[in-house]
TrEMBL record:
Name assigned to this protein: Thiosulfate sulfurtransferase like domain containing 1
Cellular component aspect of the GO annotation: cytoplasmic ribonucleoprotein granule; cytosol
Record-annotated Rhodanese domain positions: 15-113
Gene source species: Sphenodon punctatus
Domain of life assignment: Eukaryota
InterPro entries: Rhodanese-like_dom, Rhodanese-like_dom_sf, TSTD1_mml
GO BP field: sulfide oxidation, using sulfide:quinone oxidoreductase
Length: 115
């Protein structure tokens, strides 16, 4: 489907700094390998994180909080389920264009090799 983000499209957007990629896996999973430039917010923390004010978000996660109108707010997990849940949460909070990279880290690492 046209709405399913592809790995190549993300690589392009990430390299230009146009996509915000949030890894919603556990810190333990992230420690074993991650997509460069992704920010780890475990799925259980996503709702609370997206409700933080921008200053607190930046202090906690080290990056600017995404804006509600950002075009490319992307979530991913290992294989898609938790990323989908995080995307639903973000959309419910007003991030209308939030997307799930449904292939997850599994697909990314198989295609790219672990960073």
């Amino acid at each position: 489907s046209a709405g399913r983000p592809t790995r190549h499209r993300y690589l392009r957007l990430l390299s230009r700094g146009e996509a915000r990629l949030f890894d919603v896996r556990s810190p333990e999973e992230v420690a074993e390998g991650r997509i460069a430039s992704s920010v780890n917010i475990p799925v259980a923390d996503v709702e609370e994180a997206l409700k933080l004010d921008p200053e607190t978000f930046k202090m906690k996660y080290g990056v600017d909080k995404p804006r509600l109108d950002d075009d490319h707010v992307v979530f991913h997990c290992q294989m898609g389920r938790r990323g989908g849940r995080a995307t639903e949460i973000a959309i419910a909070l007003g991030y209308a264009k939030a997307r799930n990279f449904s292939g997850g880290y599994k697909e990314w690492s198989e295609k790219e090799g672990k960073p």
